[in-house]
Predict the 3D structure of the following.
Amino acid sequence: MRVWAIANQKGGVGKTTTTLALGRGLALRGQRVLLVDLDPHASLTRAFGVAADPAPEGVLDLFSTPPQTLADLARPSRIEHLSHVCAQTALATLERRSANQPGLGLALSQALARHSGQHDYVLLDCPPTLGLLMINALAAADRVVIPTQAEPLALHGLAGMRRTAEMVERSRRRPLPVSVLPTLYDRRTRAGQEALRKMQDDHGERVWEDAIPVDTRLCNAELLVQPVGEDGGYPGRALSSYRRALDWILAGDAEPMERAA
């Protein structure tokens, strides 16, 4: 079972869209996929049509005593092989609880260990803040995918996210590979072109050589949870780009496993 954290400390870069698009792509390839919404804003949860009030069972219950299991919390979707775990707005209270409840930083790792073998891929949609939930995700992940908008201000968020990933990698004493995915790219603007070029210059082979373009069809993330049609599930420019990006991430994911074999 492979665990990918979809993370960036800057908001508005397409984390939830990326989680949905990559998860959908994996499911279309026959992989058993679980998407876990770690963001108290619950955008991923709402995309699946789950109301925030009353609060559903979800990620917060992994931090309870005793904790629930991911298998009990997982909900099926309308896409074959694709399930999800909801977020609750009360996740925002976890930071306060952590002072009096030791061990919360490893709660997600422990839940995933108990869930081993039940899915092929688990994708963690992280909140845009460095806190307990993001640290949980990075501690548990086999890879971190960093969606980064191709615009100058987003480059600072990318640098900060890289530093955070390196800090967690040193702490857990095992590699945390990074895949940087340029998103919301508008090739018509000079600022977008220059930001993409600088991203690739500064971060090298960790950055995908292409970019996910701006596509108004993805403004509504619910498109990504609709059943697959004859189009193969990738209508439009952005989703076709996500398919190629998934190929790139999977190729990078295979390299360390081949070396370990």
Observations:
- The radius of gyration is 17 Å.
